[in-house]
Amino acid sequence: MTDPRAPVAFIGLGLMGAHMAGHILAAGHPLHVYNRTRAKAEGLLARGATWHDDPGSAAAKADVVITMVGLPKDVEEIYLSSRGIIAQARPGAILIDMTTSSPSLAKRIAAAARARGAGAIDAPVSGGDIGARDAKLSIMIGGEEADVAAVTPILQLMGTNIRRQGVQGRDSIPSSRRAMLHPPNPPQKGNSMPGVLERNNVKVRGAGE
């Protein structure tokens, strides 16, 4: 993204998302936010972020849209619903899903984004809330080279180990598995390795909490 102050929408302000969004806001980007529970956005709103009542309306105000939600079904809903992110995204916007999701869903989102005239990247992370707080996440990127290059400065606000893995959906499960097997920080309670891998149908012998 050539504009160092491009407006960014951040959807999903949980334990990690709030920290990640905070780094973007601190860098000077106008920040548009949505979370199912508004209370989790109050800290960012006090610092100048703008609240939106749904993901699509936040996306409509941004050149870059970042999502960090819970499960693939949540990703599907916020991106592909009739009033979701893709339906309201600006042509030319780049959409970045940082949720640990499924390769098939990443490909569907990429195709829908292209039809809208937008770009799409899947960028699952590892590092937990400590990595998010300290802007030291590992980020594994799937997407078109030009889109990845455009948003790399924004990704660098959140992480220090950023690697492109190919196009959307390719190698997503192996990347997630490697990240969770060798995290920079221990798994956080409620975000353990087995739970993340199980959602991607990946079985690892000897994996523990």
Automatic annotation (TrEMBL):
<dbReference type="GO" id="GO:0016054">
    <property type="term" value="P:organic acid catabolic process"/>
</dbReference>
<feature type="region of interest" description="Disordered">
    <location>
        <begin position="165"/>
        <end position="209"/>
    </location>
</feature>
<keyword id="KW-0560">Oxidoreductase</keyword>
<feature type="domain" description="6-phosphogluconate dehydrogenase NADP-binding">
    <location>
        <begin position="8"/>
        <end position="163"/>
    </location>
</feature>
<dbReference type="GO" id="GO:0050661">
    <property type="term" value="F:NADP binding"/>
</dbReference>
<dbReference type="Pfam" id="PF03446">
    <property type="entry name" value="NAD_binding_2"/>
</dbReference>
<dbReference type="GO" id="GO:0008442">
    <property type="term" value="F:3-hydroxyisobutyrate dehydrogenase activity"/>
</dbReference>
<protein>
    <submittedName>
        <fullName>Putative 3-hydroxyisobutyrate dehydrogenase</fullName>
        <ecNumber>1.1.1.31</ecNumber>
    </submittedName>
</protein>
<dbReference type="InterPro" id="IPR002204">
    <property type="entry name" value="3-OH-isobutyrate_DH-rel_CS"/>
</dbReference>
<dbReference type="InterPro" id="IPR036291">
    <property type="entry name" value="NAD(P)-bd_dom_sf"/>
</dbReference>
<dbReference type="InterPro" id="IPR006115">
    <property type="entry name" value="6PGDH_NADP-bd"/>
</dbReference>
